[in-house]
Amino acid sequence: MMQEDDRASGIFELLSRELALACDAEGTVVWRDERAARILGVKPGQSLKSLASHGSESKVEKLLVQARDEAVDGWELILQRDHKPAAFAFRARPHDGGIALVGSLVPEDYGAALTQVSTTLGELSALHRETERQQYELKRRAEELTRLNRELEESNKGVRSLHAALDEKAESLQRASEIKSRVVANVSHEFRTPLHSILGLSKVLLNPLNGSLAPEQEKQVQFIRGSAESLFELVNDLLDLSKVESGKTTLRHSRFVASDFMSALRGMTRPLLPPDSPVTLTFEGPEAPLELETDESKLSQVVRNLVSNAVKFTESGTITVTVAPGPKDTVVFTVKDTGIGIAPENHERVFEEFIQVDSHLQRQVKGTGLGLPLARKLAEVLGGSLTVKSTLGQGATFTITLPRVHPEVSEMTGLTQRSEKLDPGRAPVLVLEDDRQTLFLYEKYLARSGFQVLPVRTVEDARKVMQRVRPAAMVLDVMLEGETSWSFLAEMKNGEQTRDIPILVVTVTDREQKARALGADEFWLKPVDEVRLQKKLASLARVGPVERLLIIDDDDVHRYLLKQLLKDTPYQLLEASNGRDGVRIARENAPHLIFLDFVLPDITAFDVLDELKADPRTRDIPIILHTSHQLQEAERARLSRETSAILAKHTLSREVAITRIRDALSKAGLGNRELREANPRG
């Protein structure tokens, strides 16, 4: 029995994880039990710190120091066990000047968990420090961004102030440019009148048929005439330049042959050279017939300016004017001389206004410095360019390159061809406008809105188009070149077949009263806004003839008066002397408009409105309320919502009645053929 107890005790001793130690005050082991010897391999006289795992020595030292004075529980140490670190939990008490310690071996899985927890805590601590660092960095960057935002805001304020100043300056410059153009145009015209008189009178004085002059007098008159011609040339150049700069140059395209153009030019430039001049002026036409379609007078003005300039700066030699076809359907004119030439640094300066390159000939011939700038601007208006090649002392060659057919002509031809074939999916709109650029804008504006533009530039062309097409609407410019369209507008509105076609008058002059009186459905001043045009045409194009009007009024006199006011109009008038008859007639005859008296003998106007609005056949009919009754605010508010207009009987006139009918129908969008076909009452 004793042996069995010893064996059991030995087994429990082996399985136990607790051990006991006793150390002196310095931490030297003075006693250890068998388990301590077996688990740690510790011997008396050995230092407890020597058992600590690397890095745990300080924790052993702290335990020894604290346990000398007080009891310590739950102190964890990492000690070496079989040369491997192992975790122990110690309790310690002071004992006889030393320390008694009892420890237990922490299971390995728990130790691994503690190690993992310790590692995780370390990582969390590192992450916390990194987070704090990042937060600090973010805060620093936020402060930096705030500072930058303040600086940007200040910069933006400066930029906005600068833009405002630039806009103000631009407006000022634009106003100055407009004022300059107006002044130049007005002064030029004012100059022309006395200059015409001076030139005419000097010509009369120099004519021997009007009496002979003394040689000295004739010489003086020649001086006067020469000065007047120079001034007249300057005025013309200024006026042409101001027109080009303001975009008011009118192009008159024509078709002509280059050889005929050169022949006419030869005759116009011959007087520039005196009979005994050492300079020869020659013209060379193209080998094959060459046809152009552009502004012949503008082109002639450009070439004449270049020839005149060449004559001034060529003392002897030749001036040659040639024309030949160029690449990509262009035409090239050249004016080549053997004059003094132009230095390369002055090639662009000669095209600046009032710039003159100093030379001995320049001082002799003087001039305004406007000829070449005007020539280049006119060449650009013709869709081309003007360049120069020259070397000082070796003459100059000016080259004009322009399209054989002006771009406006090509676009207009395409627009006209497209209009000849009607597109059934688009509503045709007749546009009477003499300016090609404006016609192009109309097509651009309306093509995206389901309309097909029928362009015409004269009243006669408009009449021809009307013979083959009935447009959904018309757009008329009143002030055409050489004529107006007032008579055409009146003709359209008086014609039995055309009076119902909506017409929009667009012009640069404010003549709305006349346009309205002649029957125009809308009147605008140029320039036209795209969105406004699309919306208005979309609404006008829906308006067709309106046939039936219903008058609901118990006053026989007022019904008669209203019929008299409208007797010459195309409306068919229906009458009802009370509200119930009016509702019945409205349901049976589906009028396009109703005149409703506010005070009726049987039911009120509100009852009539309720019955009409409740019936699908009559709810969309526009209603004009006419009354001599003083309406209360609540009554007026409701009637304004449910009627198209309110007329006072004492102010009623033919003009007011017709105007309110038109406004009410336009507001309701009535007259649309498609709507009437789909609507059972139409």
Q: Can you put this structure into words, describing what you see?
A:
- The protein is of the alpha/beta class.
- 49% of the residues lie in helices and 21% in strands.
- It has 21 helices and 24 strands.
- The strands form six sheets. The chain has a five-stranded antiparallel β-sheet with strand order 2-1-5-4-3.
- Strand 4 and strand 5 (98-105) form a beta hairpin.
- Helix 4 packs antiparallel against helix 5 (215-246) and helix 10 (407-420) crosses helix 11 (436-447).
- The protein is elongated and about 160 Å long.
- It starts with a helix and ends with a helix.
What is this structure, in a nutshell?
With 682 residues, the protein is α/β, with parallel strands linked by helices. Strand 4 and strand 5 (98-105) form a beta hairpin. It is elongated and about 160 Å long.
Kindly list the characteristics that best describe this protein.
single chain; 682 residues; five-stranded antiparallel β-sheet; disordered C terminus
